[in-house]
Each structure stands twice: as C-alpha cells, then as structure tokens.
Amino acid sequence: GESVGLHLPTLSVQEGDNSIINCAYSNSASDYFIWYKQESGKGPQFIIDIRSNMDKRQGQRVTVLLNKTVKHLSLQIAATQPGDSAVYFCAENPDNTDKLIFGTGTRLQVFP
Amino acid sequence: EPEVTQTPSHQVTQMGQEVILRCVPISNHLYFYWYRQILGQKVEFLVSFYNNEISEKSEIFDDQFSVERPDGSNFTLKIRSTKLEDSAMYFCASTSGQGKDTQYFGPGTRLTVL
Lengths: 112, 114
What we know:
The structure holds two protein chains of two kinds. Chain A is mostly beta strands. Chain A is built from no helices and ten strands. In chain A, a hairpin with a 6-residue loop joins strand 8 and strand 9 (about 100). Residues about 1-5 of chain A have low confidence and may be disordered. The radius of gyration of chain B is 13 Å and the shape is globular. Chain B has strands at about 5, 10-15, 20-25, 30-35, 45-50, 55, 65-70, 75-80, 90-95, 105, 110-114. By secondary structure, chain B is mostly beta strands. Chain B has no helices and eleven strands. In chain B, the strands form two sheets. In chain B, strands 2, 4, 5, 6, 9, 10 and 11 form a seven-stranded mixed beta sheet that branches. A four-stranded antiparallel beta sheet of chain B has the order 1-3-8-7, with no helix packed on it.
C-alpha cells in the first residue's frame, strides 16, 4: 500500500521575527548534536553544531541551546528572513558511533 | 567552498535492476557515509566507510547493498536488485575526522524504482 509520510510540524513566522525550533533527542549517550537545513530537493545543509560539554553555542544569526537533563535541543534564528524557509532537522551522534540519527524535522515558513 | 557532489541527480530503474549511485566526497575527507530519505520521512543512516572498509551499517543495509571506493575520488553505493521500497533520495556525506566532525552532505540522488 501507499506509505504515508510524516506530518511535519510547521512554524510560521513573520519576516524579521525570531524563530525557535525545538527538538527532543532520544539517546542519553549522544554527545554531539547538529542542526541541518534542508530546502526542497536538496541535501541537508549544516547550520550549527554543539558538543555535550556545552549548553549554548552561537553562530551568525543562529543559536543552539542544549539541555541534557531533558534531552532537548533548540535552534534560535534571529531576524528570520524568507531565505530561511526550509525544513530543519536536528541530528544526534551517540558517543560510540559516527552515524547521525536524525529527528523528524520542522518546516519553517517565513511570510512577509 | 568544497562540496560533496553526487550523480546522477535522478535515476529511474525497473524493479530487479542494479543501480550504482556515485559520490565525490570533499577531497581531504577520510570518512564517507550514505543515508537515505524516503519521501516525507526522516533521513536514515545506511553505512559508514573508512580506510576502504565498512565501519558501521544499519539494518537497512542488507546483502543487496554494497559500497566501494574504486579510486581516490569516487565513493559508490550499489543496489544489486532494486525493490519498489528502495525508491528514495540517497545522500552521500563525508567528514575529515571520525564521528565528532561535521558531516557535509551532497545534493542527493533521487532513485525511482518502477
């Protein structure tokens, strides 16, 4: 039968506002986390990463927060622009492997 | 800026046929990966490859799949006898160091099995 894709949560924001995308990860042994942006028909594009010995890391217009107690990761995008519209995935890397485990993804829609 | 490249961008094949998906990782990278993404679903790990051998593979990566680094630049994924459920986007990724370095992804090959 036909497979049903996941219904992605969607975040709609107005251009210029800040966006916060959340992710719950599964493995308490994960010690490296990455946020990827995926535009339609393209591969995942690296945005920012953080290691488990940090709680916060900032890049250009983006900040990642890590809460190991509740296994939660968030991506904050400042002054969201139309070009930020995409699906955002968090990925975790358990400490005994080099594979990435991707989350479900969140669709970010930016409207003028 | 160096990029991972993949060819072809779209491959259509008949069920039971063999396909080879090609990747050129970033030139100084040593660790290579294949992932796949079924339409509308998560990106899933298939296999990692280092020093001319598989270092890890997932349950998806069964005997129908194989990987090879035939020369100093290409990294290939072969599916021996394709099934309908192999239809997906296949992404190659590479990194300079094991695990805790950023994995950079290619644009993907869309495989359609009819």
